[in-house]
Amino acid sequence: MTGAVPGPDGLLRCGWGESADDYRVYHDTEWGRPVQGDDALFERVSLEAFQSGLSWITILRRREGFRAAFAGFAIAEVAEFGPDDVERLVQDTGIIRNRAKIEATLANARAARDLDGGLSALIWGFAPARGGPAPRTLAEVPAVTPESTALAKELRKQGFRFVGPTTAYALMQACGLVDDHLVDCHVRGAGTAQRPV
User: Fold this and answer.
1) Residue 1 in this model has a pLDDT that exceeds 80
2) How many angstroms separate the most distant Cα atoms in the chain?
3) Contact by Cβ (8 Å): 153, 181
4) HSE of 120, CA atoms in CB hemisphere, 13 A
5) What is the pLDDT of residues 128-151, one digit of tens each?
6) Would you say 193 and 33 are in contact if contact means Cβ atoms under 8 Å apart?
7) Nearest to residue 159, comparing CAs of 106, 83, 197, 121?
8) pLDDT in tens, 14-66
9) How far apart are the first and last CA of the chain?
10) How sure is the predictor about 197, in pLDDT bands with cuts at 50, 70 and 90?
11) Residue 140: exposure state from Cβ atoms within 10 A (0-12, 13-18, ≥19)
């Protein structure tokens, strides 16, 4: 699957958006649409970090479990989690029970809480000034960009973990900093009007 493909409803989608029902819903309603707000972006940073080394559908199907385990990704609450919470989370079958990623999520909440200006302002500060041409195939979609490399570097400087350039670019795609829907995809451009100033 390299270009946009038709779904059972006749709409053209990025190929990955037709690989499973969960992906279709996520592709059509969320991926690539601008996300604003510190807690909402903290959720996305956290989920992208948990996804490292796994398929996204593994995370997507456990999303409600993650939300329950991490207090709805409220930064102020997660920043107060301690060693007992780590032990509780390591036993939670509703999430990915990776101790290093759990500890990173708690550290990232503390880093997000302590940011001057907030997480949303930091992340959106790395949005490209303007997008390039719309990709025609999945092969034209990059895995890393100069902006994602710079964002990852800044997040690490602020104390975040599990935020390399590839993870940062996946975050940028998911949260609408870039629009990597293929040129023929019916969702292409759907989130542009919502983009923060």
Assistant:
1) no
2) 50
3) no
4) 11
5) 987 778 999 999 999 999 999 999
6) no
7) 106
8) 999 999 999 999 999 999 999 999 999 999 999 999 999 899 999 999 999 99
9) 35
10) very low
11) middle
Whether 103 is catalytic: no
Instruction: Please name which of 110, 90, 108 lies closest in space to residue 99, comparing C-alpha atoms.
Output: 90
The question of whether 169 is a catalytic residue gets the answer no
Asked whether the beta carbons of 94 and 12 are under 8 A apart, the reply is: no
56 among known catalytic residues: yes
| Options 56, 77, 103, 140, the catalytic residue | 56
pTM above 0.85, yes or no: yes
Which of the residues 23, 48, 124, 147 is marked catalytic? 48
CB atoms within 10 A of CB 124: 21
CB-CB contact of 106 with 98 (8 Å): no
